[in-house]
Fold this protein.
Amino acid sequence: MVCRLSAHVGFPPLENLANQADRDQYELLCRENTRMPVDAYKGCHLARVPSHAVVARSVDGKEDLIWELLNQAQEHFGRDKSAEFQLFYSPHGKDLLFTDATTGFLRVPPKMDAKLYLGYEYFSVIQHLGRGV
C-alpha cells in the first residue's frame, strides 16, 4: 500500500483504515506496476505472504550466532517466561515486535535458504521493491 500524500510504502492491516477518508489516502500496489483503490484488495496483490518469518542474511557465517540470540530471547522472554517483559505478547496490543499469535521461533534447516522458504513469487517481489522497480 502506498500513501498518496507522502508516497511512503507500508503494510498496515486494512482494518486499521476504518473510515473512507483514511482509505482514500492510500492505493494498493499491484502487479505489472498498476495501482488500485484499497477496497479492491481481492483483485490486487503483489504476492501471497508466507507464514511470518524473521529473515537475516548470512554475514561471515554468523547464522549460528543469530539463531542463538533469537533462541536465548525466546527462552528468557517467550510465552509464560517473564512477568516484566514478554517477547510475543503485549497487554496493550501495541508496540509489538511480533504478533500476539506468535508462539516462538523455529529454525529453518540450514540447506533451506530464504528464497526457498519464502517462495519464488514473494522473494521476487521483495527483490524488485528493493531495487525500486
Notes: The chain has two domains: 2-43, 63-120. The mean pLDDT is 76.
